[in-house]
Design goal:
Elements lengths: L20 H6 L8 E5 L5 E5 L9 H12 L2 E6 L3 E5 L11 H9 L3 E6 L6 E11 L2 E10 L5 H18 L2
Antiparallel strand pairs: 1-2, 3-4, 3-7, 5-6, 6-7
GO molecular function: DNA binding
InterPro entries: B_subtilis_Trans_State_Reg, GAF-like_dom_sf, SpoVT-AbrB_dom, SpoVT-AbrB_sf
Keywords: DNA-binding
């Protein structure tokens, strides 16, 4: 359902429309972000922050394979949220904590303890960033109730690197 904002903007001579600061802030759209443009059957235009990770057709295969090999829960994310998961009981209740977002932004593999659901039990997390054009755009995250072993961490890093290379360009 669409919600009216009461904001009206003119299209300039180059076809541009300025998106109001309030809308950019609420949607976490920053200067330089790419937006995907959708048009529905009623000619309504919908803007969505573009996720290069979500555009990888076989992302689910990578995530499921990693979960199968490691026996751990696996999540693939972009900076907005979960894109794919395997061995997770209820994906809808997952959230990217401040620690996870900071680890993704850091651009280096990080292992720490944190809850994966608000107010939930803490787990061992390994965040392996997905790098595109020298920017961290998401992560492959391993989740375990024990310390994550080095071979599993290396496998997560490998999958993150493969995903990043699939987006290169």
């Amino acid at each position: 359902m669409l919600k009216a904002t009461g904001i009206v903007r003119r299209v300039d001579e180059l076809g541009r429309v300025v998106i109001p600061k309030e809308i950019r802030k609420v949607n976490n759209w920053r200067e330089g972000d790419s937006l995907e443009i959708f048009v529905d059957d009623d000619a309504k235009v919908i803007l969505k922050k573009y996720s290069p990770i979500a555009s990888i057709v076989d992302i689910n295969s990578y995530v499921e394979s990693l979960a199968e090999v490691t026996g751990l829960s696996v999540i693939a994310t972009d900076s907005m949220g979960v894109i794919s998961s395997a061995n997770i009981a209820n994906e809808a209740s997952l959230e990217l904590s401040k620690e996870v977002l900071e680890a993704i932004e850091a651009g280096e593999d990080v292992q720490f303890q944190a809850p994966i659901r608000k107010g939930g039990k803490s787990y061992s997390l390994l965040v392996a960033p997905v790098i595109r054009n020298n920017d961290s755009v998401g992560a492959v995250i391993l989740i375990s109730n024990r310390e994550i072993r080095e071979p599993d961490a290396k496998a997560a890093s490998l999958i993150a690197n493969i995903i990043g290379s699939r987006m290169a360009g």
